[in-house]
Amino acid sequence: MLQEQEAHAAQMERTFIAIKPDGVQRGLISEIVSRFERKGFKLVGIKIIVPPKDFAQKHYHDLKDRPFFNGLCNFLSSGPVLAMVWEGEGVIRYGRKLIGATDPQNSEPGSIRADLAVVVGRNIIHGSDGPETAKDEIKLWFKAEELVNYTSNAEKWIYGTN
Ligand code: UDP
Ligand code: MG
Predict the structure, then answer these.
(1) Separation of CA 161 and ligand 2 centre (Å)
(2) Best CA proximity match to 47, nearest among 27, 23, 19, 75
(3) pTM score of the predicted model
(4) Which long-range contacts (CB under 8 A, 24 or more apart) does 28-31 make?
(5) Closest ligand by atom to 56 CA
(6) Is residue 126 annotated as a catalytic residue, yes or no?
(7) Closest Cα partner for 43 from 156, 158, 160, 150?
(8) Hey, which residues does 83 pair with through a beta bridge?
(9) Does residue 10 carry a pLDDT above 80?
(10) Which of 4, 44, 90, 150 is deepest in the core (most CB within 10 A)?
């Protein structure tokens, strides 16, 4: 029992997930949140904000040399974004699976982008692509005190630690 709990704690990770302005405007917040929630991941931070353009540029700094960078940053700062931090075993990698490939035309059916979006420039959701990015993005979007540590009642049933 203790070993299971320790193994579980060691594999716990956090990722940054954001519903972009198109997803918010299209009324897809509850649909998207429920996919992460029903899977068994735990919501530890959430807020709705309109990110200023320079903030969007910071968030997407890796893409600054790409031709779509300016349009992408304008778009991200064009309206409310739902910023979230989700916690769970493997949540960084599996979160990307739930989201699907960048271009919805190539996303696997069943994934969020495949089911709910059509073009790459309006693919409704962002998710960190690895542990380092997750750490950086969580730090950029959230203050430490905006993230909540708690044990959910369901956790022992999700992870078999009961
Ligand atoms: N994007 C775009 N055109 C492209 C590639 C990407 O408009 O040809 C946008 C798209 O909204 C994507 C975002 O830029 O989600 C960030 O690109 P990235 O390659 O990091 O994809 P993601 O990590 O979001 O799947
Ligand atoms: Mg990316």
Answers:
(1) 33
(2) 19
(3) 0.96
(4) 28/116, 28/124, 29/82, 31/116
(5) 1
(6) yes
(7) 150
(8) 18, 47
(9) no
(10) 44
Class of residue 3 by CB neighbours under 10 A (exposed 0-12, middle 13-18, buried 19+): exposed
63 CA → ligand 2 middle, Å:
8
What residue owns the CA closest to ligand 1's atom 11?
121
Which of 58, 118, 120 should be mutated for ligand 1, with most atoms under 8 A from CB?
Answer: 120
ipTM of the complex: 0.99
Task: Give me the residues near ligand 2 (ion), CB cutoff below 5 Å.
Answer: 129
Run of H or E residues at 112: helix 112-116
Q: With contact defined as beta carbons under 8 Å apart, do 147 and 85 qualify?
A: yes
User: How far is ligand 2, taken at its centre, from the CA of residue 101, in Å?
Assistant: 10
Q: For 108, which DSSP code?
A: P
Q: What is the CA radius of gyration of the chain?
A: 16
